[in-house]
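Protein in question passed on here:
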Amino acid sequence: MSSGYHTGWKVPAEHREDPAYRAAGRRMDFAQAVYERRAALGWTTAELARRAGLPEADIESIEESGVDPTLELIERLATAMDAGAHIDPRTSPEFRFEDSAA
């Protein structure tokens, strides 16, 4: 019988370095960054899609961690959200959008 809720996953080091695991992490970080920036702007997925010239289903898929963050897609979204993109694999999350410098 369990004495409490599961509070965290312990991922073996060899799994953290697996390319599929790293790719999933990048997709999740990208999804979170897009969602957080869109929400901070007060936009719906439809509004971001319109501004980025993408189908709304693509934005929804991005925010569900279903899309790999290509350079072209990052640039397109950053431009639409008037933001810079910061990627640093030494940090967690590895990816975020930042306000453009004035």
Summary: Helices lie at 13-16, 19-41, 45-52, 56-63, 71-80. Residues 15 and 21 are 7 Å apart (CA to CA). The first strand starts at residue 83 and ends at 87. Residues 14-92 form a domain with the 434 Repressor (Amino-terminal Domain) fold (CATH 1.10.260.40).
